[in-house]
Structure formats: structure tokens, C-alpha cells
Amino acid sequence: MANYEPTSIRGKKDPGWNHGTLVNLNKPIDRIKCNYCSKITKGGISRLKEYLVGGFRNATACKHVSECVKVEMKELIETKKQAKFVMDSVPHFDDMDN
Ligand SMILES: [Zn+2]
Description:
This protein is an alpha+beta fold. Helices cover 34% and strands 10% of the residues. The chain has 2 helices and 3 strands. The protein has helices at residues 44-53, 67-89; strands at 20-22, 31-34, 40-42. Strands 1-2-3 form a 3-stranded antiparallel β-sheet, covered by helices on one side. The longest helix is centred in the last third of the chain and has 23 residues, at 67-89. The relative contact order is 0.13. Zinc ion binds at residues 34, 36-37, 39, 62, 64-65.
């Protein structure tokens, strides 16, 4: 009857969690195992998403993930960037009225 979600550990709402599994619940470091190739990334869910997409700082990319997942993860990363950008630019909203 409870609404309790066993997967709702900090930050687990991110759709990136559909593609990775938290390795060690006892460690402060977010080590996440890729669901497609068992590679373990360190640095949380955003790092895993970068790994799935490829072409980021770590330079490696998952070779087993499907193209559509890659696209999905890439869009997630972009959306987050844009959300931050929009929030940063909100104070300049008045300029639109000339
Ligand atoms: Zn992988």
C-alpha cells in the first residue's frame, strides 16, 4: 500500500537510471554500472549518460548501447544545459519589450 519506491535513492528520477545500476550503495561515490556492457563509471548519473553518448571528457563511449538510447541521453544532457541557460538569462527578460 505504500508509495515507497525501492529505486528512489538520491537523484534516481533521472531517466539515465534506465540504463545503469548503482554498484555500491554504501560508498559516497556514485559508481554506476552500464546495463549494456557492465562498464562501471564513476561520477554519478550524468557521467554515465556522457559515457553512453560518448565524445565527452572521458573520451570512451559504450559500444553496446543502441543508437536511440544514445540520442535519448544526448537530448537529456542538452536539455539540462538549456535549463541552466534559461535560468541564467531570466533577469534580462525586460529587454524584449522594445
Ligand atoms: Zn555500456
